[in-house]
Design goal:
Elements (H helix, E strand, L loop, with lengths): L1 H11 L4 H17 L3 H4 L7 H4 L3 H16 L1 H11 L9 H16 L4 H14 L7 H25 L5 H23 L5 E5 L3 H7 L3 E2 L5 E3 L17 E3 L18 E4 L6 H8 L3 E6 L2 H14 L4 E4 L11 E7 L14 H4 L2 H20 L1 E11 L8 H10 L3 E3 L20 E3 L17 E8 L2
Parallel strand pairs: 5-6, 5-8, 6-7, 8-9
Antiparallel strand pairs: 1-3, 1-4, 2-3, 9-12, 10-12, 11-12
Bound molecules: S-adenosylmethionine.
S-adenosylmethionine binds next to α12 and β6.
Protein name: MFS transporter
GO molecular function: RNA binding; RNA methyltransferase activity
Family: Belongs to the class I-like SAM-binding methyltransferase superfamily. RsmB/NOP family.
Amino acid sequence: MRNRNVQRENLSAIPGLAVRMAGTRLLAAVVDAATPLDGLTDAEHGHPQYRALDVRDRALVRAILITALRHRGTIAALLACRLEKPLPANATTLSHLLHVAAAQILFLDVPDSAAVDLAVTHAKSDPRTLRFAGLVNGVLRALARAKAAELPIMLETSRDAPDWLSAMLEKTYGPDETAKILAAHRREAPVDFTVKSNPELWAERLSGIVLPTGSVRVEKLVAPIPDLPGFVEGAWWVQDAAASLPARLFGDINGLRVADLCAAPGGKTAQLVLAGAEVTALDTSKNRLARLEENLARLGLSAETVQSDLLAFAPPRPFDAILLDAPCSSTGTVRRHPDIPWIKTPADVAKLAALQAKLLAHAIKLLKPGGQIVFSNCSLDPSEGEELVETFLTENPAIVLDPIKPDEIAGVQPFITPAGALRTTPAGLDMETPALSGLDGFYAARLRKAY
Ligand SMILES: C[S@@+](CC[C@H](N)C(=O)[O-])C[C@H]1O[C@@H](n2cnc3c(N)ncnc32)[C@H](O)[C@@H]1O
């Protein structure tokens, strides 16, 4: 017992080891238990091994994990080249430990020797990996030697996406667009702001550019969001350029009663309120609705908020217009959430598509005849977008598609589909540099209740 304590004390004295151990543990939670990375790295409610780290170490763990997930296919392929035979199927801790080290060696500004030595020490400290310590040393040293020659070639040929996602993208968008989408997934997304007014002024103050769609885009933040100019006075909120489009599809809603039925954290609610609508913002999640209320308060905007499952919501009067920004697989947001490809499955996509169809059918009942409903989500999968709406329209003759016209909203024309819906992918919105380009994958269709 005494020896074990001494050993533990010794381990905690090794600089950087706790970060690698937490990285390996959290990678296991993402990949083996499908736990979202944002939850694991939440400052208050995150994984205890993460919360035990200081602020700098937390940032390093997040950087390692984001890199390990963003380049998971490339890392796996380069590791496989160094292994004589595949790792045993039950050697998951060893695999995660190697991925954590390889992410540092291949993509991060960590000296190779530090990444290798810490991985070997880590392997020796864990009974599950102890007997592989020699393999860890050999594989990682060989990887460090080979990276200059092999990494550029591997980036050309490997895919950083699981087969199911690659296959869905290829089938939907074809090989060229898929290659562009997957290339965009490898880049960190810029930060977009929706501004209440005067985008040029805020682009200057935030050191960004104004996009053709009117959002302000900043390549890399120089300070935490709450420290940026305009935060305290509520001049803007963070919202991807694509996410800012669905709420703008209603045209003039000044004075109309509009329901935002999956509203939290409220980016689109804020747009609807700013456009002059009397907004009811509904969400099933108490915590997320509380965030929406905080966000609206900072922006000096107000809306009626309702915490309810949409399927149980029965308002006394129908609404003039409805936004249904439905929960989805979020495959359009991989640039910001590189864990998504590795925690979602085709079964999740199918389940979410079925839920969306139910939510849409219920939402329609809450709409006035003649009213508009915008259905949107941030999935790249047509089963949650184009196909779902097509089926819905076939089954509901009272609902018709209200096609979006090219000149309705500035900058939106390239994203209008032949059917008149909106489709964006991370391969869209080419700006001066790749780092300033791209936008989240979104689908939005504007429907009208004819009678
Ligand atoms: C894509 S997010 C909405 C983002 C939001 N529209 C925005 O722009 O900030 C989907 C939301 O739907 C909510 N949700 C999921 N199932 C729901 C249901 N059955 N009823 C109401 N809200 C639901 C989730 O809590 C989540 O906040």
